[in-house]
Amino acid sequence: MSDLKLFEEKAVRSVWNEQEDKWYFSIVDVVEVLTESHNPQVYWRVLKKRLLAEGNQTVTNCNGLKMMAPDGKMRMTDVANTEQLLRLIQSIPSPKAEPFKQWLAQIGAERIAEIENPELAQARISTSQN
User: How sure is the predictor about 114, in pLDDT bands with cuts at 50, 70 and 90?
Assistant: First the structure.
């Protein structure tokens, strides 16, 4: 299930993986939110190289998924689950890091509530389609 999450009015593309019971988030979107970079793809590319050179395994474990790009086409983008994302956030100097971590925790809490009460998930889906 693909979804757009908003953090401070900025979209973060996400996908819920039913088999793994995990959210995956577009790393480029998170980089853009945290850094306010005009070119988050380049920022991520440079950060990824630096982390790989340091031997950071988080980058190695990030996967690519097709997600809807701003141009309306499905394109491959690097994604990370919540745990991987929290590790990556530590490598990005940003005053928004702590509020973003709290936002991730809220998304996790909402998903747990939806699992316990499927009517909440139906209500969210209905709201997002309107």
Answer: confident
Report pTM: 0.74
Tell me the β-bridge partners of 76: 66
Comparing CA positions, the residue from 122, 89, 126 lying closest to residue 104 is 89
Find the length of the chain: 130
Residue 42 has pLDDT above 90, yes or no: yes
The DSSP call for residue 61 is T
Residue corresponding to tokens 């953090």: 7
Q: What is the DSSP string of 69-109?
A: -TTSSEEEEEEEEHHHHHHHHTTS--TTHHHHHHHHHHHHH
Per residue in 78-88, is it b (16+ CB within 10 Å) or e — as a string?
Answer: bbbbbebbbbb
Tell me the per-residue pLDDT of 8-38, one tens digit each, with 9 for 90 and over.
778 889 888 888 888 899 999 999 999 988 9
Cα(120)–Cα(29) distance, integer angstroms: 26
**Token couple for 127:** 């709201």
